[in-house]
Amino acid sequence: MLKNTFLHIPGIGVSSERRIWDSGILSWDDSVRLPLPPLKKTVHLFKELVEESFRQLEIRRPRYFTDLLPAGEHWRLFGEFRKTAVFLDVESNGYAGPRGYITAISLYDGNSVKYYIRGENLEGFRKEIAKYDLIVTYNGRCFDVPFIESHLGIKMEHAHIDLRYVLRDLGFKGGLKGCERALGIERGALDGLDGYFAVLLWKDYRRNKNVKALETLLAYNILDVVNLEPLLVAAYNMKLRRTPFSGSALPSPASPELPFSPDTDTIRRILRENSMSLHGQSL
Question: Is 137 helix (H, G, I), strand (E, B) or coil?
């Protein structure tokens, strides 16, 4: 889809891009050899900017395109950069500012899951994330990326697809879990649990040395990150149907084998012990 995109060229908006497509110019290749249709706004250096787009794609620099495209249209990069993309999700201890810290980070590249835990291997995240050109999150622009940058001292200069904006453009709201439910993605034993419960799992692990609580936290965090792929594929295909390129839909991704399973006894006990505070969170 990226090579069919003109929306990143200054002066080209949604209606202008549609007019270009309707004129028979469906790709960057077409635009180099065919004259542009009349546009409401003069676009300077159009062909030069298309040539620059070719160059940026050739040198594999997705940040060039995400810097120019609206956040709700960053999905267009996924097809071209899928092999160097990674899905990312962060869990924290529930505090902001100096009291806050990362408890776990999970990564999923479409094939394998990697996870990083405070006090164990969190420093390994620095080396691993440097391997990727594109990150995919839900609400990562507001939370995950600035939290990582602040608490790990890493500058996250990756191109970034934040599914919150892509899905909002499609009418989906209610946070990650609400979007999952709306698109038929199930969470099994973790259904109904949220980020606050993940904080309680970490506290239980730290206070009681309950390894099952840590494993349940990791199961929760990893499920969050693994579910980003089918969410993005579904959003990609829905967005694609609004263009002349619906025949290029992506197939549904396979579900990976997950390294951890939630412990239902731990979940029940924490729910029971924290019923009042969890009720307050749901209000």
Answer: strand
